[in-house]
């Protein structure tokens, strides 16, 4: 079995898949290396034979995670690295090594699934959009603060915006104009995310008319899915690209 890890800025997404058919054995989301090792050790019933990782964290943090995995599960992790070109997609950055690896792998996965022009909207710590043309040329993209960053900026840089996580969750039962601080902030930030998604769709339409596929991924994808009904919601899009960039057998 193979352990797959997607290390974002806030969370590590993990799953264990079977080598033969890539069927998913188990998976989860954790907020630390230690929690990851504990969860995988508790739930992955069969011994791991390999591990592949995509990380947007520092090299030191990624190396430390690899060392921890080697120690806990006796497997050498393979870390996905940037490429100028892969699986028919050409990296559109001036310096290809600067493109976030999660964005690159999501673009690879999306082009593989769409087999044509595609727009990837990935809503995590940051909100990202990437454009891949029908011929595989990655045209670049956009990075904005995602839901956790918008929320925490308001909480940190104002004196009178304070609320707890439970009331934040309750506030999102509707998107009507807020009648309390928590409703005003939470709903306002969701509308910002939806506005981001709509603007990206407009860009894609200007580029390609109607002939493209929209993918929606990242932990906060559910907050915009109804606002972008034409999008294919693929929560594991980064893992699709990771399997392409780091084949293991
Ligand atoms: N089970 C979960 N645990 C934590 N966050 C979650 C979970 N499900 C959805 N989320 C949302 O996902 C967001 C993080 O998205 P994610 O794509 O994991 O970010 P990153 O890759 O930057 O770490 C959080 O802001 C949170 O709202
Ligand atoms: C933009 C990101 C911070 C997004 O990280 P995430 O929201 O997935 O945690 C990451 O893709 C990154 O560090 N990119 C490098 C800069 C760039 O892509 O231009
Ligand atoms: K991510």
TrEMBL record:
Q: Active site: which residues?
A: 102
Q: What is its main location?
A: cytoplasm
Could you say which residues bind ATP here? 6-13, 125
Binding positions for substrate per the UniProt entry:
93, 100-103, 181
Per its UniProt record, what CDD domains does this chain match? ASKHA_NBD_PanK-III
Keywords from UniProt, A to Z, are: ATP-binding, Coenzyme A biosynthesis, Cytoplasm, Kinase, Metal-binding, Nucleotide-binding, Potassium, Transferase
| Record carries keyword Nucleotide-binding | yes
Q: Which InterPro entries match?
A: ATPase_NBD, Type_III_PanK
Q: In which pathway does it act?
A: Cofactor biosynthesis; coenzyme A biosynthesis; CoA from (R)-pantothenate: step 1/5
Q: Which reaction does it catalyse?
A: (R)-pantothenate + ATP = (R)-4'-phosphopantothenate + ADP + H(+)
One MF term from GO for this chain? Answer: pantothenate kinase activity
Cofactor binding note: A monovalent cation. Ammonium or potassium.
Q: Where in the cell is it found?
A: Cytoplasm
* A Pfam short name: Pan_kinase
For this protein, what is the EC number? 2.7.1.33
Q: Where does K(+) bind?
A: 122
Name what cofactor the protein needs: NH4(+); K(+)
Q: What is the role of this chain?
A: Catalyzes the phosphorylation of pantothenate (Pan), the first step in CoA biosynthesis.
Regarding protein family, the annotation reads:
Belongs to the type III pantothenate kinase family.
User: By its UniProt entry, which NCBIfam families does this protein fall under?
Assistant: baf, PRK13322.1-2, PRK13322.1-4
According to the record's subunit comment, the protein's assembly and interactions are: Homodimer.
The name this protein goes by in its record: Type III pantothenate kinase
Q: Give the species this sequence originates from.
A: Pseudomonas pudica
Lineage here is: Bacteria, Pseudomonadati, Pseudomonadota, Gammaproteobacteria, Pseudomonadales
């Amino acid at each position: 079995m193979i352990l797959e890890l997607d290390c974002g800025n806030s969370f590590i997404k993990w799953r264990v898949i079977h080598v033969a058919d890539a069927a998913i054995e188990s998976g989860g989301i954790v907020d630390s290396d230690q929690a990851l090792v504990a969860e995988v050790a508790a739930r992955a019933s069969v011994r791991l034979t390999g591990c592949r990782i995509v990380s947007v964290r520092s090299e030191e943090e990624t190396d430390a995670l690899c060392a921890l995995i080697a120690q806990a599960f006796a497997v050498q992790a393979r870390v996905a690295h940037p490429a100028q070109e892969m699986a028919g997609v050409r990296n559109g950055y001036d310096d290809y090594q600067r493109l976030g690896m999660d964005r690159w792998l999501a673009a690879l996965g999306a082009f593989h699934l769409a087999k044509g022009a595609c727009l990837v909207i990935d809503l995590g710590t940051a909100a990202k959009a990437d454009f891949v043309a029908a011929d595989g040329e990655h045209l670049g993209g956009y990075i904005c603060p995602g839901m956790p960053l918008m929320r925490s900026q308001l909480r940190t840089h104002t004196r009178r915006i304070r609320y707890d996580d439970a009331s934040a969750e309750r506030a999102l039962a509707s998107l009507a104009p807020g009648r309390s601080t928590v409703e005003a902030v939470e709903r306002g930030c969701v509308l910002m995310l939806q506005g981001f998604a709509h603007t990206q769709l407009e860009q894609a339409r200007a580029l390609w008319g109607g002939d493209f596929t929209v993918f929606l991924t990242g932990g906060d994808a559910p907050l915009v899915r109804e606002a972008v009904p034409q999008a294919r919601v693929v929560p594991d899009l980064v893992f699709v690209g990771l399997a392409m960039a780091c084949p293991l057998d």
